From TrEMBL:
<dbReference type="GO" id="GO:0005829">
    <property type="term" value="C:cytosol"/>
</dbReference>
<keyword id="KW-0313">Glucose metabolism</keyword>
<feature type="binding site">
    <location>
        <position position="170"/>
    </location>
    <ligand>
        <name>substrate</name>
    </ligand>
</feature>
<feature type="active site" description="Proton acceptor">
    <location>
        <position position="228"/>
    </location>
</feature>
<dbReference type="InterPro" id="IPR036291">
    <property type="entry name" value="NAD(P)-bd_dom_sf"/>
</dbReference>
<feature type="binding site">
    <location>
        <begin position="83"/>
        <end position="84"/>
    </location>
    <ligand>
        <name>NADP(+)</name>
    </ligand>
</feature>
<comment type="pathway">
    <text>Carbohydrate degradation; pentose phosphate pathway; D-ribulose 5-phosphate from D-glucose 6-phosphate (oxidative stage): step 1/3.</text>
</comment>
<keyword id="KW-0119">Carbohydrate metabolism</keyword>
<feature type="binding site">
    <location>
        <position position="43"/>
    </location>
    <ligand>
        <name>NADP(+)</name>
    </ligand>
</feature>
<feature type="binding site">
    <location>
        <position position="223"/>
    </location>
    <ligand>
        <name>substrate</name>
    </ligand>
</feature>
<feature type="binding site">
    <location>
        <position position="204"/>
    </location>
    <ligand>
        <name>substrate</name>
    </ligand>
</feature>
<dbReference type="Pfam" id="PF02781">
    <property type="entry name" value="G6PD_C"/>
</dbReference>
<feature type="binding site">
    <location>
        <position position="322"/>
    </location>
    <ligand>
        <name>substrate</name>
    </ligand>
</feature>
<feature type="binding site">
    <location>
        <position position="166"/>
    </location>
    <ligand>
        <name>substrate</name>
    </ligand>
</feature>
<comment type="function">
    <text>Catalyzes the oxidation of glucose 6-phosphate to 6-phosphogluconolactone.</text>
</comment>
<keyword id="KW-0521">NADP</keyword>
<feature type="binding site">
    <location>
        <position position="136"/>
    </location>
    <ligand>
        <name>NADP(+)</name>
    </ligand>
</feature>
């Protein structure tokens, strides 16, 4: 049993915001392995005692709800200070953990993945059956992702490498898979004959704040589309796997990513919009614009196609941006019109298409938009109106941070919700085609006011359901 978690980047933002709160919840719910030990690794010199009190202060909000779990988790923590750029120092500092099955979690900047993995490997910490967990981004293009993956494979086998895409840990994303694979009604129509288009929207009100340098080197395309949005697209579009084994699912996702039509230079102008937020008002608060010399986008809208039998001719529209009007993550599947329209009202072409709308954030809802009639005598002819079936789970279990699920799966060795090397590379291959098209055509980065829905040029890329409240299909 893997009972030791080595957490690199333990004083960083990700660890404080998500990983420690998740671990506290898992401790509370007794979901951590028997004899669990946490080795927090960071650059700052301090004793284990000092680290525990530092962390206790930061977990004050968690402690208010569950002081016993915070105490319990803190008791399991030791702290190790080491320079994470120094492979030899890592090997020396972590060698005491070589003899037990462990999970090393690199919540560090991506340029440290390889030096840390090499240090751990030299110390024997990555020997079978120990595992390695990595955050995104794996590289910033195909070439760098290949280099990182090759360097990691030299340290341990792919079957023990867990690449996180935290969207896969979200319960609503797993529900998306359940809905499409667990229902005859959807299975039957899940293809180009019946589906007109698919929209994937990830709108954030948050800005780049505090991550300017990282962001300037990546932009929204690399930060959000390469991973979270293409993973959503792959789950929606993949062929049903023959079973739920990690590799059966990952193989199907990879095939979708490989079938994405590369962005041609001639298409970039009509199929993409890049934007960057200027000053504006978001959620009632005046905010500054994103200013940086790098011509990097905080908003991207794309139209793409999957060139295979199931999806021929179906546009997938992907939109993501920071400092937008509202926080909303949605998948909207719009169906084709019925083959022969019998009704006067609404007139043919003005009916609202059937739509499956899955909202992942901030609330988790599922709605099916249909046409129906409340036949009233004064209407004369049979008049149809849009109506909506609410398929949301009313008794959904306690909401969990996505990382809780992912941490448990990494400790138990289940790779299903982690991204395989070839998936990452196929995603980068497509992203590279977009980047190449942008630079060849000098695609402009259009400024939009913070608090809007992005550049006006992107209006046609936004889902038609935007702004419709729940039940308003
Ligand atoms: C991260 C990106 O991977 O996902 C951030 O680096 C983004 O830029 C975040 O804000 C969004 O995650 P969530 O779970 O809040 O939708």
């Amino acid at each position: 049993m893997h009972d030791t978690l080595l957490l690199f980047g333990a004083t960083g933002d990700l660890a404080q915001r998500y990983l420690f709160p998740s671990l506290i919840h898992l401790w509370r719910d007794r979901l951590l392995p028997e004899g669990f030990r946490l080795v927090a690794v960071g650059r700052q010199e301090m004793s284990s005692e000092a680290f525990r009190s530092w962390l206790r202060e930061r977990m004050a909000a968690e402690a208010a709800d569950d002081a016993a779990a915070v105490d319990g988790l803190l008791r399991s923590i030791d702290y190790v200070a080491v320079d994470l750029r120094d492979t030899a120092a890592i090997a020396a500092a972590l060698s005491p953990y070589a003899d037990r099955p462990s999970v090393s979690y690199l919540a560090t900047p991506p340029d440290l993945f390889v030096p840390v993995a090499q240090g751990l490997s030299a110390a024997g910490v990555l020997a079978d059956p120990s595992r390695l967990v990595l955050e995104k981004p794996i590289g910033r293009d195909l070439a760098s992702a290949r280099e990182i993956n090759a360097a990691l494979r030299a340290c341990l086998d792919e079957s023990r490498i867990f690449r996180i895409d935290h969207y896969l840990g979200k319960a609503a994303v797993q529900n998306l898979l359940a809905l499409r694979l667990g229902n005859t009604l959807l299975e039957a129509v899940w293809q180009h004959r019946w589906i007109e288009s698919v929209d994937i929207l990830v709108a954030e009100t948050a800005g780049v704040d505090g991550r300017e340098e990282y962001y300037a080197g990546y932009g929204a395309l690399r930060d959000m589309v390469q991973n979270h949005m293409l993973q959503l697209l792959a789950l929606i579009a993949m062929e049903p796997p023959s079973n739920l084994d990690a590799d059966s699912i990952r193989e199907e996702k990879r095939k979708v990513l490989r079938a994405l039509r590369p962005m041609g230079q001639a298409d970039a102008a009509q199929d993409t919009v890049r934007g960057r937020y200027g000053a504006g008002v978001v959620e009632g608060r005046a905010v500054k614009g994103f200013v940086h010399d790098a011509p990097v986008e905080t908003f991207v809208a794309l139209r793409t196609w999957i060139d295979n039998w199931r999806w021929a001719g179906v546009p997938f529209r992907l939109v993501t941006g920071k400092r937008l009007a509202a926080r909303a993550t949605e998948v909207v599947v719009s169906f084709k019109p019925v083959s022969h329209w019998l009704f006067e009202r609404p007139a043919r072409g003005r009916e609202r298409p059937n739509r499956l709308r899955m909202r992942l954030q901030p609330d988790e809802t599922v709605e099916l938009g249909l046409m129906g009639s409340l036949a009233a005598p004064e209407w004369g002819a049979l008049e149809l109106r849009p109506m909506s079936l609410d398929l949301s789970m009313s008794n959904s279990p306690q909401r969990r941070i996505a990382y809780e699920r992912l941490l448990v799966d990494a400790l138990r060795g289940n790779q299903t919700l982690f991204v395989r090397d070839d998936e990452v590379e196929s995603a980068w291959q497509w992203i590279d085609s977009v980047e190449r098209a942008w630079s060849a055509t000098a695609q402009p980065v259009i400024e939009y006011p913070a608090g809007s829905w992005g550049p006006a040029e992107a209006a046609a890329f936004l889902p038609a359901t935007l702004g419709q409240s729940r039940g308003g299909q």
